[in-house]
C-alpha cells in the first residue's frame, strides 16, 4: 500500500488528525510514567524486611508501676510467654521493621569522625536474632556476657558501653566496601563497637530512601524502659491464638499496665503500606481509564471517517480495490497517526519524568518503559480501528453508483 | 430559535447514541476525578485558624552542625533545642510566644471500671491558649509564673473531659497522667484545628486531636516522654535539656509587619551572638514563616495527593482532546447539511450557535454526571483510613466550581469544532454531493 494517498487524505483532516495525535501522545506520556510509578511502588511493597514475617506476633506493653524494675519484669514476662504452647521463641525489643520506633545514629569510623552513614539501632534481649528470624550470613550471634542495659532513663547511655554489634550487609558494604567487616570497629557514639556478625536484611522502622532503607545495627542492649514490645515466634496457623493468650498471660502476671498494638507482623506491614496500596490502585485506574478513553476515541473517530467516506470507498472498490486493500488503508492510516502520537509521546514522557524527578524524587524513566508503552499504544490503536475498518471493507462497490 | 436548536441537537444525539453517551461519560469522568481531587486539596489547604493565622509565625533558627549525613534534607524542620526555646520564651520579644512538644501519656481514671489508656496531648507554655484563641468551655489556662513554678495543672479537651468526668463539673479535680496527679483548671470546647498546625507536621497532621495540655516545664521536670522527631548531635550526653537536641516547636504572635521584621532581626542577632559562643556553626539565616506559609513549606498536603490531582487533571485533558476530536469529526461529517442551511440564508453565527448549543448540551450533561462522580469519589476518599478522610466534603464553592468547570469544559470542547464547521464553503460542499 503506497503511503502518499493516505497522507494526502489526512491533510484534508489536519485538525482532527492532529487532535487524535495529541491525545495519543498525552496518553503515552502519562501512561509510561504511571506504569513506572506503579512498578516502583509495588517493589517497595515487597521489599524484604529480613524477619520471618508470617511467624511473628507482637504486643506492646507499657508498665505503669512507679517503682518498676523493668529488667526483672521483662524476664518474668518472657518466661511466662515462652510457656505458651506453640511459641518457639520470644524476645523483648524496641524497634521492628515498620513499627516507626526509629532511633538512628550517625556511624563514624573513628572517634569524633564524620558520620559515614545513618543506621537504626535495634535492641533486644538474648534470642532476638532467632525470634525475628534474621539470617546471619557471616560471624556469630551475641554471647550472654555481651549484653548491657540500654539505659533508657539515662539518655540511652548503653550505647557507650556495648562492646559488639551485628550489622546488615548493606551497612557493612557502605562502611567497609570490599573489606571483611568482621572485627572492625564502628563509632555510633563516643566509644568503639566491634562488628561480630553480618545479617542479610533488616528493614528500618520508618520509610527511608531506598539506598538507606536497609542500614541497621543490632546491639546486645536490654530494653529497660517502661514501654517495650514483646515478639513471639510461632507457626503461622497458631498466630491468632498465641496473640490472644499472650495478652491474657501478660495481664494476669501484672495488670497495672497498658497493652497496645497486639497484632501479627503481617498486619503491621499491611498498615504501614495502606497509603501506598491506595495509590497503586488509583494509578492503575488512571492508566486504565486513559487507555480506554483513547481507544474509544480512536474507534469513534474511525467510524465517523468510514461513514463519511462510504462513497469514495465504494468507488475504490468499483475500480478494483479488494476488501483487503480497504482494510489495510484504515489500518495504515491509524498506524501513521498513532505513530506520530507515540513519537511525540515519548518526548513528552521524558519531559514529564524530568518534572517528577524534580518535584517528587522519582527516579529516571528507563527506556524500556517507553518502548513497551509505545508498542502497547500501537497495538491498542490497531485493535480500536479494527471494527470500523472491517465495516469499511464490507462497503459494497455498488455504493459508488448511488448518490450520497 | 433556541428551542429549535435544542431539538436539532437532540435529533443529532439520537443518530449516534453510543458516541454521544461516550462523550458524556468521558467528560463526566474527567470532571468527576478532577473535582474530587481539587476538593480534597481545597479542604486540606484551608486555614486552620481563620482570623488569627495572619499574626502567627514560626521562627526558624538552625543550631545543627554543618556536617550531617542528610544531604538531601532541603526542608527546614523548625525544631528548637531546650536552650534556644527557653531563651526566646524568656526574652519575650513578641506579643505572645509559646514553646511546645507533643506527648502521649497513660491516663489513669479514678473509676475502677475504666482501665488505664493512652491519650495524646501537648506540653505547652502559658501563652499557647491566648495566642491560638483556644475556646474554653469553663476555666482558663495558666500563667507564665505557673510555668516557672512547674505547677501540676492540666487543661482538658472536651472528649477526655467527658470520658473521665461525664457531665459532672471537673474544675479542681485531679487527673492522673502517667504517675503524677494534675489538677484540672480548664476545659476546652472541643478544640480540634485541622490540621494540628502547631505540632510537627507529619502523616498525623490531619485527624488527630490533642486531649490534654500540661505545662512544658512540668513535663520536662517529670521527664515525660515526647512523641515525634528528636535530633541530637554533639557529645553533651545530657539529652533533651541540652542545647544539642532539637525537638521543641516554637510559635510567636506578631500583629504587624514591622514587628515581624524586628523579630527576624532579633533572631539573626541571637544567631550571631551564639556563634560567638561556639554554637550555631551554619551561616546566619534566621527565618520567620507565617502560619499558612509554614504549612505549605512543611508539605502538610502529602505529595501523593498532589500527584493524584495532576493525574486527574491530565485525565481531564485527554478526555477534552478526545471530545474535541469526536465533535469535530461529527460536525464536519454534517458538512452537507450545514451547507444547505447556509445556502438557504443561515448566517455563520446561526450555524455556530446551533453547533455550540449541541456541544454545550454535552458539556452540561457531562458536568452533571461529573458532579455525581465527584460525590462518589469523595465518598470513596472518606472511606480511606487517613486522617484527612472525614474532611473530604464538597462545600458550596466547590459545587459551583464543578458546574463552572463543566460548562467551561463543554463550551471549550465545542468551540473549536463549531467554529471550524461553520466555516465550510457551502458551494463547494453542495457541488461534491
UniProtKB/TrEMBL annotation, chain A:
InterPro entries: ABC3_permease_C, MacB_PCD, Macrolide_Exporter_MacB. Residues 54-222 form the MacB-like periplasmic core domain. It comes from Dyella nitratireducens. The chain crosses the membrane at residues 20-39, 279-306, 335-355, 367-390. This is ABC transporter permease. The keyword Ubl conjugation does not apply. Keywords: Cell membrane, Membrane, Transmembrane, Transmembrane helix. Pfam families: FtsX (PF02687), MacB_PCD (PF12704). It is a multi-pass membrane protein. The gene is ybjZ. Residues 285-397 form the ABC3 transporter permease C-terminal domain. Belongs to the ABC-4 integral membrane protein family. Its main location: membrane. It is found in: Cell membrane.
TrEMBL record, chain B:
Residues 20-223 form the MacB-like periplasmic core domain. It is found in: Cell membrane. Keywords: ATP-binding, Cell membrane, Membrane, Nucleotide-binding, Transmembrane, Transmembrane helix. The chain crosses the membrane at residues 21-44, 309-332, 352-376, 396-419. GO terms for molecular function: ATP binding. Residues 312-426 form the ABC3 transporter permease C-terminal domain. It is a multi-pass membrane protein. It holds the Pfam family MacB_PCD. This is ABC transporter ATP-binding protein. The lineage of its organism: Bacteria, Pseudomonadati, Pseudomonadota, Gammaproteobacteria, Lysobacterales.
Amino acid at each position: 500500500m503506497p503511503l502518499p494517498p493516505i497522507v494526502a487524505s489526512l491533510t484534508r483532516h489536519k485538525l482532527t488528525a492532529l487532535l487524535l495525535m495529541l491525545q495519543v501522545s498525552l496518553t503515552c506520556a502519562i501512561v509510561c510514567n504511571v506504569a513506572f510509578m506503579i512498578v516502583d511502588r509495588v517493589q517497595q511493597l515487597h521489599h524484604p524486611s529480613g524477619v520471618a514475617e508470617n511467624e511473628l506476633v507482637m504486643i506492646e506493653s507499657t508498665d505503669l508501676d512507679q517503682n518498676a524494675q523493668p529488667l526483672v519484669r521483662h524476664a518474668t514476662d518472657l518466661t511466662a510467654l515462652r510457656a505458651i504452647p506453640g511459641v518457639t521463641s520470644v524476645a523483648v525489643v524496641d524497634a521492628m521493621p515498620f513499627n516507626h520506633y526509629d532511633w538512628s545514629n550517625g556511624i563514624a569510623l573513628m572517634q569524633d569522625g564524620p558520620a559515614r552513614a545513618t543506621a537504626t539501632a535495634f535492641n533486644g534481649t538474648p534470642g532476638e536474632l532467632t525470634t525475628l528470624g534474621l539470617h546471619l550470613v557471616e560471624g556469630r550471634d551475641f554471647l550472654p556476657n555481651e549484653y548491657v542495659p540500654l539505659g533508657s532513663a539515662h539518655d540511652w547511655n548503653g550505647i557507650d558501653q556495648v562492646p559488639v554489634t551485628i550489622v546488615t550487609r548493606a551497612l557493612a558494604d557502605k562502611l567497609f566496601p570490599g573489606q571483611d567487616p568482621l572485627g572492625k570497629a564502628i563509632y555510633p557514639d563516643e566509644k568503639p563497637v566491634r562488628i561480630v556478625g553480618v545479617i542479610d536484611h533488616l528493614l528500618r522502622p520508618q520509610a527511608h530512601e531506598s539506598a538507606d532503607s536497609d542500614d541497621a545495627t543490632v546491639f546486645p542492649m536490654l530494653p529497660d524502659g517502661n514501654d517495650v514490645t514483646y515478639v513471639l515466634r510461632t507457626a503461622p496457623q497458631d498466630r491468632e491464638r498465641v496473640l490472644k493468650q499472650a495478652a491474657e498471660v501478660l495481664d494476669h502476671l501484672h495488670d497495672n499496665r497498658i497493652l497496645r498494638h497486639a497484632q501479627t507482623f503481617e498486619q503491621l506491614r499491611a498498615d504501614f503500606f495502606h497509603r501506598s496500596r491506595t495509590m497503586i490502585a488509583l494509578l492503575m485506574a488512571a492508566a486504565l481509564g486513559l487507555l480506554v478513553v483513547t481507544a474509544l476515541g480512536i474507534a469513534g473517530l474511525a467510524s465517523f471517517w468510514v461513514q463519511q467516506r462510504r462513497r469514495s470507498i465504494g468507488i475504490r472498490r468499483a475500480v478494483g480495490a479488494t476488501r483487503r486493500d480497504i482494510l489495510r488503508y484504515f489500518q495504515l492510516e491509524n498506524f501513521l497517526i498513532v505513530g506520530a502520537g507515540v513519537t511525540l509521546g515519548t518526548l513528552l514522557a521524558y519531559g514529564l519524568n524530568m518534572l517528577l524527578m524534580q518535584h517528587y524524587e522519582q527516579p529516571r524513566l528507563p527506556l524500556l518503559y517507553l518502548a513497551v508503552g509505545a508498542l502497547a499504544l500501537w497495538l491498542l490503536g490497531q485493535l480500536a480501528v479494527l471494527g470500523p475498518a472491517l465495516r469499511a471493507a464490507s462497503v459494497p462497490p455498488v455504493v459508488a453508483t448511488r448518490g450520497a | 430559535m433556541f428551542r429549535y436548536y435544542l431539538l436539532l441537537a437532540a435529533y443529532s444525539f439520537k443518530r449516534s447514541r453510543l458516541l454521544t453517551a461516550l462523550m458524556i461519560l468521558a467528560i463526566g469522568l474527567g470532571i468527576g476525578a478532577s473535582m474530587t481531587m481539587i476538593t480534597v486539596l481545597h479542604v486540606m489547604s484551608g486555614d486552620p485558624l481563620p482570623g488569627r493565622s495572619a499574626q502567627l509565625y514560626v521562627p526558624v533558627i538552625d543550631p545543627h552542625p554543618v556536617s550531617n549525613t542528610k544531604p538531601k534534607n532541603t526542608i527546614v524542620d523548625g525544631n528548637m533545642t531546650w536552650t534556644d526555646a527557653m531563651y526566646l520564651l524568656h526574652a519575650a520579644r513578641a506579643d505572645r510566644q509559646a514553646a511546645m512538644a507533643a506527648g502521649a501519656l497513660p491516663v489513669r481514671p479514678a473509676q475502677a471500671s475504666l482501665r488505664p489508656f493512652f491519650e495524646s496531648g501537648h506540653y505547652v507554655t502559658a501563652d499557647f491558649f491566648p495566642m491560638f484563641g483556644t475556646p474554653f468551655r469553663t476555666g482558663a489556662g495558666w500563667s507564665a509564673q505557673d510555668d516557672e513554678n512547674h505547677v501540676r495543672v492540666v487543661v482538658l479537651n472536651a472528649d477526655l473531659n467527658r470520658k473521665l468526668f461525664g457531665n459532672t463539673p471537673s474544675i479542681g479535680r485531679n487527673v492522673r497522667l502517667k504517675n503524677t496527679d494534675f489538677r484540672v483548671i480548664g476545659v476546652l470546647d472541643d478544640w480540634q484545628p485541622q490540621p494540628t498546625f502547631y505540632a510537627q507536621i507529619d502523616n498525623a497532621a490531619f485527624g488527630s486531636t490533642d486531649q490534654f495540655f500540661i505545662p512544658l516545664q512540668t513535663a520536662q521536670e517529670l521527664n515525660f516522654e515526647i512523641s515525634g522527631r528528636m535530633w541530637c548531635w554533639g557529645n553533651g550526653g545530657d539529652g533533651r535539656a541540652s542545647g544539642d537536641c532539637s525537638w521543641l516547636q516554637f510559635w510567636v504572635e506578631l500583629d504587624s509587619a514591622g514587628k515581624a521584621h524586628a523579630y527576624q532581626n532579633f533572631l539573626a542577632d541571637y544567631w550571631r551572638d551564639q556563634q560567638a559562643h561556639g554554637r550555631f556553626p551554619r551561616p546566619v539565616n534566621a527565618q520567620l514563616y507565617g502560619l499558612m506559609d509554614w504549612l505549605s513549606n512543611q508539605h502538610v498536603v502529602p505529595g501523593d495527593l498532589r500527584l493524584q490531582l495532576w493525574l486527574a487533571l491530565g485525565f481531564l485533558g485527554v478526555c477534552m482532546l478526545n471530545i474535541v476530536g469526536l465533535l469535530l469529526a461529527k460536525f464536519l461529517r454534517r458538512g452537507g447539511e450545514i451547507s444547505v442551511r447556509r445556502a438557504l440564508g443561515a448566517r455563520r453565527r446561526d450555524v455556530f450557535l446551533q453547533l455550540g448549543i449541541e456541544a454545550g448540551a454535552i458539556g452540561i450533561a457531562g458536568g452533571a454526571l461529573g458532579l455525581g462522580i465527584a460525590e462518589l469519589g469523595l465518598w470513596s476518599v472518606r472511606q480511606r483510613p487517613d486522617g484527612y478522610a472525614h474532611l473530604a466534603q464538597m462545600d458550596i464553592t466547590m459545587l459551583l466550581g464543578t458546574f463552572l468547570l463543566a460548562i467551561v469544559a463543554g463550551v471549550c470542547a465545542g468551540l473549536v469544532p463549531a467554529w471550524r464547521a461553520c466555516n465550510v464553503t457551502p458551494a463547494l460542499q453542495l457541488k461534491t454531493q
